[in-house]
């Protein structure tokens, strides 16, 4: 019996950990363990569990704090809390905060396994075996990033519904690829997927492109045109850069979404349409609404379920995977024998800022591939293609120093330069805390004067 689902078990009692492992592994689950909340947080990205089971009362970080940290980083990851009988009221309260459930200790194996199965089923978590059988829907999205896997899990859960999906992400992060993946996993997969960039079509033509027009409706309308809504009938319409749509057209789009009918330009007759809408933008639509450039009622009609794509700089573990995939594609396109990147070239790719995200990565790889005269792409070609020597990923020592300085500054701001109070918040003695301040040339008195 193999389920392929991974469970992370967290408890500072080795005996409880051992017992849980036996029970869960006997049912085919893959089990990883951690003896503290801190250890669990450090390893969750590597384990990529489908479920976390944690004790409520632990030394250091307790189960509820662990849950809150997991909730921020992995909002779809279900958590079950183990609790002694005396702490059941706390556990009940925890379920109100989003904890999937709690199990009293000592636990009965059937109750444990029933709740584990329920948590995995209701969360939509899919085992490795199941996912490998159903990869077609996301075949064009390559990732080993936990952040991206969280987005894809949400996408897989919402896909079978008819809910409108709103995708937010910087330019070049792959919003259309994600929209296509949602379509492929939906019941409309056999229907058309039609994409339109609302910012790329002139305002006076966009209405005709979306809703169609009748012959003679305007100068140049020499024949009937069905429009993209009609082309997507029975399928999915992807409205990219919806934030660029003019207000006058937003009103008409809202009416179409409410009535499920379109009226082509120059026609007096409304036509029924059955279309699922997925929209996307790189803009902050809440800011756009505040400035009066985007309708609030349309926003809430489109944003039933929201998916947020991380920028490439926040999923650097995907850069070698994507770069080698692009290189393989480009080698075939240009008829060249390219096998990979020199180590220094790959290090440069991983460390670059990537303000243009995946689209920029593809362009850099393409330029290097075209100019490379050897099977292994050298560093100088990547450097030339990037045209930017500024590393986007700092060295570990630099990152730790910057974090430490920013952390100390924040403490001094909070305490208004009170070193004793700041040291207590940092859980360090005064002498050690003064050494830290001196290391970063921080003068507490300056923060007192700032009051």
Structure description:
With 451 residues, this protein is α/β, with parallel strands linked by helices. It has 4 domains: 6-123, 3-Layer(aba) Sandwich (Rossmann fold), CATH 3.40.50.2300; 143-308, P-loop containing nucleotide triphosphate hydrolases (Rossmann fold, 3-Layer(aba) Sandwich); 313-386, Helicase, Ruva Protein, domain 3 (Orthogonal Bundle); 396-449, no CATH class. The protein has 21 helices and 14 strands. The chain has helices at residues 14-25, 37-47, 63-73, 88-96, 109-123, 128-133, 146-158, 175-184, 203-211, 227-231, 247-259, 285-290, 296-302, 319-334, 343-351, 357-371, 379-386, 396-415, 419-426, 430-439, 444-449, and strands at 6-10, 30-34, 51-55, 79-84, 101-105, 165-168, 193-197, 236-240, 261-262, 271-272, 276-281, 305-308, 340-341, 376-377. The strands form 4 sheets. The chain has a 5-stranded parallel β-sheet, with helices on both faces. The chain has a 5-stranded parallel β-sheet with strand order 7-8-11-6-12. A two-stranded antiparallel sheet has the order 9-10. Strand 4, helix 4 (88-96) and strand 5 form a beta-alpha-beta unit. Helix 2 runs parallel beside helix 3, helix 15 (343-351) packs parallel to helix 17 (379-386) and helix 19 crosses helix 20. The longest helix has 20 residues, at 396-415. The radius of gyration is 27 Å and the shape is globular. The chain starts with 5 loop residues before the first strand and ends with a helix. The mean pLDDT is 87. Pfam families: AAA_lid_14, Response_reg, Sigma54_activat. This is Two-component system response regulator GlrR. One of its GO terms (molecular function) is ATP binding. Residues 6-120 form the Response regulatory domain.
